[in-house]
Structure to design on (316 residues):
């Protein structure tokens, strides 16, 4: 069995690079190169058969190399040039499945914080205001989830565990998690919008989902509904969202993703009292790259055994 050369590019934090390297060193028939500079990355790609990366610059594919497989470190793949990878004969697998727990906890925490008025309570604490406003109970609410994949499915399980009624959309409704009380195909989104007091967006960004939650969608939702976005910023029409929040059409929003990142300093979203803003960190915890390494190890076994078609989350 031949030895594979694995490249970890420089773009990751030192701690993350080291965490991955330690896990990869446990693999048989694998040599690991940890790049610390852009030049080391470019040099390493020339000899690597495998790379672990959140993107593949065209410069990599233009160089003479033996690259066979890229293990993505994100669940999405809209930032990869799939045609270029296919033409170069390079397989791509994603990290779908690594985000379910951390993002699920973020979404549940955001909904609990909004429902129990915890964020407003923190503001009142800062101003030394004693106001006994305890909010409502999340268990009395209907949570609508757009996209019941690995992430949306975990959010459904957590929301159901605290007593929420859960509805959602999935391309194949027959594969929806048991925690979902009612599931609809993607083209019946309005059924979910009409019921969702908390609308959680957990779908990939595609031509079909870009701008999916627009003014019409927001008007379809119950008054005082809350939008929770952990998908991609462009799934939501941000101008329409700001307008709906300012007019009181929506009660609030919890946003971890935005059309432009970093979120511009002049965005109205920063100053709206009923909006929670976090800088695209809902899926980031110290355990993130441990889960990436688990997927990588599983896929490496398939590749080493001559069974690349068996690799998990293969896109190309």
């Amino acid at each position: 069995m031949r030895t594979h050369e694995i490249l970890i590019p420089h773009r990751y934090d030192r701690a993350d690079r080291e965490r991955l390297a330690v896990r990869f060193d446990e693999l048989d028939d694998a040599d690991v190169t940890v790049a610390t500079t852009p030049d080391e990355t470019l040099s390493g790609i020339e000899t690597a058969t495998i790379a672990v990366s959140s993107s593949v610059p065209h410069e990599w594919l233009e160089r003479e190399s033996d690259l066979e497989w890229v293990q993505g470190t994100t669940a999405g793949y809209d930032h990869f040039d799939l045609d270029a990878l296919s033409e170069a004969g390079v397989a791509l697998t994603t990290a779908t499945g690594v985000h379910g727990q951390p993002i699920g906890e973020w979404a549940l925490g955001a909904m609990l914080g909004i429902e129990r008025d915890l964020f407003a309570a923190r503001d009142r604490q800062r101003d030394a205001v004693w106001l006994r406003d305890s909010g409502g109970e999340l268990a009395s609410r209907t949570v609508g989830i757009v996209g019941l994949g690995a992430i949306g499915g975990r959010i459904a399980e957590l929301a159901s565990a605290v007593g929420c009624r859960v509805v959602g959309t999935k391309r194949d409704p027959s594969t929806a998690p048991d925690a979902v009380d009612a599931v609809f195909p993607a083209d019946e989104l309005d059924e979910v919008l009409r019921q969702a007091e908390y609308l959680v967006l957990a779908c990939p960004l595609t031509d079909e989902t870009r701008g999916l939650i627009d003014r019409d969608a927001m008007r379809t939702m119950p008054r005082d509904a809350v939008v929770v976005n952990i998908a991609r910023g462009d799934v939501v029409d941000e101008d329409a969202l700001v307008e709906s929040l300012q007019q009181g059409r929506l009660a609030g929003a919890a946003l971890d993703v935005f059309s432009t990142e970093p979120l511009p300093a002049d965005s109205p979203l920063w100053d709206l009292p009923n909006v929670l803003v976090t800088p695209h960190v809902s899926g980031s915890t110290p355990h993130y790259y441990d889960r990436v390494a688990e997927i990588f190890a599983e896929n490496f076994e398939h590749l080493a055994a001559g069974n690349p078609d068996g690799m998990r989350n293969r896109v190309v």
The mean pLDDT is 96. DSSP finds eleven helices and twelve strands in the chain. The CA atoms of residues 55 and 92 lie 10 Å apart.
